Predict the structure.
Amino acid sequence: NRINETCLLFLQQRREKMKQYIPTLKRTKLFAGVNDDEISAMLDCLHAKLLSYKKGDYVFRQGSRPCCLR
């Protein structure tokens, strides 16, 4: 159905956009030794998204307890 096709297209576009970051992730200790397909699957599973912050923006404040990692 149309909704499933739209959802699938969205996931494919997000996966393609995230692929450009895999080489950078592979250089970290967290993803060392993990292959590209596994990293891509993890990013999908975690609903990874790109966020941008301006200089001076707070990501977290000391002592605050975030309800989730955006």
Observations:
- The CA atoms of residues 52 and 58 lie 11 Å apart.
- Residues 2-19 form the longest helix (18 residues).
- The radius of gyration is 15 Å.
